[in-house]
Amino acid sequence: MNAAQLVAPGRMELSAAPAPSPGDGEALVRAHRASICGSDIHIVYDGYYLGEYPAPPGFSGHEGVGVVEESRSAGLSEGDWVLAVPAPPVARCFAEQHVVAAGSLIKLPDGGDPNRLLMAQQLGTVVYAFRRHWPASMSAEGLTVAICGAGSAGLFFTQLARRAGFAKVIVADRAELRLQIAKEFGADVVVEVPGQSFLEAVMDETDGQGADLVIEAVGYDATRIECLEAVRYQGRVGYFGFPEHPSGLSTWSFNAAWRKTPTIEIVTGTQREEGLRSFHEAVDLIYSGQVNVDPFLAPVYPLDHIQDAFDAAREQRGGKITVQVASSDLT
User: Fold this and answer.
1) Model-level pTM?
2) How far apart are CA 77 and CA 13, in angstroms?
């Protein structure tokens, strides 16, 4: 089979690899498409991969859709379309065939567009995070949310915040195109940084009080600190962005937290949620049309242009970069 392979820091290549076989409780999936996550960028370019080179074929793709070719699990059958949501260390979605534990596969609804439902992996992580950042038991009536970052995750947060009933949604990003999409998704105020100040904009829009909820969806220490400064006294801060440094030695402002005394939720590990509840919810939200994924359906790169795809994702060229893994369209 063909597979993308990380052969050196920052270097992805197409390789030939033996097709894997599933064990008990697993399924062999013929991949259709896989999308590139921000964590993949950290792994490929930023030193987060600590194993030997070349890395396993298909690693570290963990956002995939495909068809079950062989199942050794009672809940899955040959021909089922599935969303694959494996944990990154064991993920192989950038290969034409990959083995996935049955507990990391979600059957797609009949008639669903797999190209659209692929986005349920990213949306699922955002659903999981937002539920903790702002529990459903809390009213958002009359309140303000500020979202730092308008990549695919930030734009999903924008839609969920509007669905939750926040009165004002503020979104900041460096890319004008992403901010235009944020407006379409319900943002009341957009802030194009660094020309505009995210912190100043939030304070201007809240009469100097700060936002009730601030979500960091970028992954830089500087933006984490700025989000602390932008929250109101005893408000809530949601940290979603990936750590900036693989060493784990990040600079973070406890002084700001001490002054603001906010509730801080750091969220990761959606794949460990019992029953994959958030991923199932994400599939339903996309299938029913309640969440818009139109801006994330292109561009699509063929597998033999995997390096170009990763470079485009790193340079933020497009709302969401997707790889056509199958040599022919399985749909």
Assistant:
1) 0.96
2) 32
pLDDT in tens, 248-301: 677 778 888 999 999 999 999 999 999 999 999 999 999 999 999 999 999 999
User: Please, what sign has the CA dihedral across residues 239, 243, 244, 250?
Assistant: positive
Q: What's the angle, vertex CA 326, arms to CA 324 and CA 328, rounded to 5?
A: 105
Say yes or no: do domains 2-119+297-324 and 134-270 share a fold.
no
CATH number of 134-270: 3.40.50.720
Q: Residue 99 carries which side chain, given as an amino acid letter? A: V
Domain definitions of the chain by residue range: 2-119+297-324, 134-270
- Among 131-135, 219-223, 319-323, top mean pLDDT goes to 131-135
Nearest-angstrom CA–CA distance, 315 and 312: 5
- Tell me which H or E stretch contains 263: strand 263-266
Instruction: Tell me the average pLDDT of the chain.
Output: 96
What is the predicted pLDDT for the residue at 183?
97
Angle at 260 between CA 257 and CA 264, to 5 degrees: 55
DSSP 246: T
User: What is the CATH code of the structural domain delimited by 2-119+297-324?
Assistant: 3.90.180.10
